[in-house]
């Protein structure tokens, strides 16, 4: 089963896809996570895309499509992918169609999450990610518990693109290019 989870930034696509990934033994393919990994590792690609991701704009389709192909073509993930944050515009959607045909796969389910801009602002500005295990919290909706085993205060970080101005820009990008 392949799934696309779709919705504006801050719609909790990442958290929901983690539940689905575990429950149905799928592989979560988050383009945002892949890009952040490149940025954190300071690879050549990471340095190229840092300012784009920070500003809330979209990274070029060529970069994204090649990241996607390396995973869709891998037999280990055959018919087991949950796409989180991809496709994000029409050329990416067309590319995904071509890749699915090429590797004899299809999308079985599309889940669309709908959230208002007011809630999105709180979700984005309140988001905290554990730098050790990747678990996602929210200061307003899902604060970390005091006695967490892993996610201690010093490990909880804000994403660089999680501020109100960039949130509004990312929401606008979603409305213009993705929706
Ligand atoms: P996300 O973690 O999905 O919110 O993505 C964070 C940022 O990574 C976005 O604001 C974009 O700058 C970039 N990004 C993630 N996925 C894509 C994509 N499919 N196409 C272009 N840029 C992307």
Keywords:
globular, binds adenosine monophosphate, alpha/beta, 47% helix, three-stranded antiparallel beta sheet
Task: Walk me through the structure.
- With 179 residues, this protein is of the alpha/beta class.
- Helix content is 47%, strand content 14%.
- It contains seven helices and seven strands, in the order E-H-E-H-H-H-E-H-E-H-E-E-E-H.
- The chain has helices at residues 13-24, 31-40, 44-55, 61-72, 90-102, 117-126, 164-178; strands at 3-6, 27-30, 81-84, 109-112, 127-130, 136-138, 156-157.
- Strands 2-3-1-4 form a four-stranded parallel β-sheet, with helices on both faces. A three-stranded antiparallel β-sheet has the order 6-5-7.
- Strand 5 and strand 6 form a beta hairpin.
- Helix 6 (117-126) crosses helix 7 (164-178).
- The longest helix has 15 residues, at 164-178.
- The structure holds adenosine monophosphate.
- Adenosine monophosphate binds next to helix 2 and helix 3.
């Amino acid at each position: 089963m392949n799934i696309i989870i779709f919705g504006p930034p801050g719609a909790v696509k990442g958290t929901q896809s983690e539940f689905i990934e575990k429950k149905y033994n799928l592989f979560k393919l988050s383009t945002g996570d892949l890009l952040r990994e490149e940025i954190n590792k300071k690879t050549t690609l990471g340095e190229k895309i840092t300012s784009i991701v920070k500003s809330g704009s979209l990274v070029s389709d060529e970069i994204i499509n090649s990241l996607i192909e390396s995973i869709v073509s891998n037999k280990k993930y055959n018919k087991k992918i949950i796409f989180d944050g991809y496709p994000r515009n029409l050329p990416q959607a067309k590319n995904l169609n071509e890749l699915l045909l090429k590797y004899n796969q299809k999308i079985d389910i599309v889940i669309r999450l709908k959230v208002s801009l007011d809630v999105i602002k709180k979700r984005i500005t309140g988001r905290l990610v554990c730098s050790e295990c990747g678990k996602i919290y929210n200061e307003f909706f899902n604060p970390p518990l005091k006695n967490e085993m892993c996610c201690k205060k010093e490990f909880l970080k804000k994403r660089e693109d999680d501020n109100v101005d960039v949130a509004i820009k990312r929401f606008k990008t979603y409305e213009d290019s993705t929706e």
